[in-house]
């Protein structure tokens, strides 16, 4: 994963959102369109989100210290979760408020709709540039992990570029909704359509915020590594000549491209203590070499026949546990 690429994606998205947010606000005030004001709120939410994502990138790069021996990688998930919350509060709630106020309030006259069309066209062009950058970044990350785009969006451990991609996709859809609201208002003379478009934008932002919040909450709580990595680590542990059986294997993402591996292994009873120590060191080094994402490895020698340990593993994974 390219840190420079993620930073560029976030900075570009922030600059674009700030510029078009000002344009949307001016257009909303000139036309009186609730959909345009909702889109202005959307852009403000996006801009604030990019600031939080930049904070996430900067904080997560701090090296490990005594108080945080595994580093600050999870800070990226915390700030990205806050970005999802702000996306909902400052974007979705404002858009719904504007929409319902227009639908159930007094009818409003539309003025200078051509201003809204021009701003929406400019905004769509600028958002497309940001979306293209975010899409390229996410596709590069997916290719580097050997995954399809859908798999990477589901299993990827770096929320920054994915957040920008989701935001920009929502922004493009929101612009189309705003265009429809302004157009139908002009054609029918009813401001209800403008309000409906604003509510639809709010629902769209709420759905995106939910998806982002759920993904970041899972990462922050402590999600296991990708199934492919777990299977590969298990196979390499089992293939070590000193190992009779892998009794238990636990992994956890401790940051973007950083995985903690904890393994309970039944070693050959014939090897001595010194050979056992050397085997643990060698196996850990081999795992880190073979898988750059593996940051920390802990190997605990255990007997596979221990009933308490077996019960604990079965309780966690079910009858499929080995």
Note down, in words, how this protein is organized.
By secondary structure, the protein is mostly helical. It has 2 domains: 3-221, Up-down Bundle (Alpha-lytic protease prodomain-like); 227-320, 2-Layer Sandwich (Alpha-Beta Plaits), CATH 3.30.70.1350. Helices cover 70% and strands 10% of the residues. It has 10 helices and 3 strands, in the order ααααααααββαβα. The protein has helices spanning 3-31, 34-60, 75-104, 113-144, 149-155, 159-188, 192-221, 227-239, 273-290, 307-317, and strands at 243-255, 258-267, 294-301. A 3-stranded mixed β-sheet has the order 1-2-3. Strand 2, helix 9 and strand 3 (294-301) form a beta-alpha-beta unit. Helix 1 packs parallel to helix 6 (159-188), helix 3 (75-104) runs antiparallel to helix 7 (192-221) and helix 4 (113-144) crosses helix 5. The model has no long low-confidence stretch (mean pLDDT 85). It comes from Actinokineospora guangxiensis. Keywords: Membrane, Transmembrane, Transmembrane helix, Transport. It is a multi-pass membrane protein. The chain crosses the membrane at residues 7-30, 77-95, 115-132, 164-184, 196-213. It is found in: Membrane.
């Amino acid at each position: 994963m390219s840190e420079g690429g993620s930073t560029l994606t976030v900075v570009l998205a922030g600059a674009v959102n700030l510029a078009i947010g000002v344009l949307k606000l001016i257009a909303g005030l000139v036309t009186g369109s609730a959909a345009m004001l909702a889109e202005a709120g959307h852009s403000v939410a996006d801009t604030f989100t990019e600031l939080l994502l930049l904070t996430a990138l900067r904080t997560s790069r701090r090296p490990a210290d005594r108080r945080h021996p595994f580093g600050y990688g999870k800070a990226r998930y915390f700030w990205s979760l806050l970005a999802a919350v702000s996306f909902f509060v400052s974007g979705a709630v404002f858009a719904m408020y504007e929409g319902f106020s227009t639908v159930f309030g007094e009818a409003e006259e539309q003025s200078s709709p051509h201003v809204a069309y021009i701003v929406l066209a400019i905004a769509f062009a600028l958002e497309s540039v940001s979306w293209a950058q975010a899409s390229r970044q996410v596709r590069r990350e997916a290719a580097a992990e050997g995954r399809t785009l859908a798999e990477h969006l589901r299993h990827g451990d770096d929320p920054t570029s994915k957040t920008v991609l989701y935001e920009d996709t929502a922004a493009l859809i929101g612009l189309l909704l705003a265009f429809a609201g302004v157009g139908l208002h002009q054609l029918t003379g009813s401001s209800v359509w403008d309000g409906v478009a604003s509510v639809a934008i709010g629902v769209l932002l709420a759905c995106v915020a939910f998806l982002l919040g759920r993904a970041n909450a899972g990462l922050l709580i402590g999600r296991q590594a990708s199934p492919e990595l777990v299977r590969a680590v298990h196979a390499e542990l089992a293939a070590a000549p000193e190992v009779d059986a892998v009794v238990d294997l636990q992994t956890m993402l401790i940051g973007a491209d950083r995985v903690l591996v904890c393994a309970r292994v039944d070693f050959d009873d014939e090897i001595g203590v010194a050979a056992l120590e050397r085997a643990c060191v060698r196996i850990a080094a081999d795992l880190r070499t073979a898988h750059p994402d593996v940051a920390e490895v802990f190997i605990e020698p255990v007997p596979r026949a221990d009933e308490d340990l077996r019960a604990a593993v079965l309780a966690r994974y079910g009858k499929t546990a080995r």
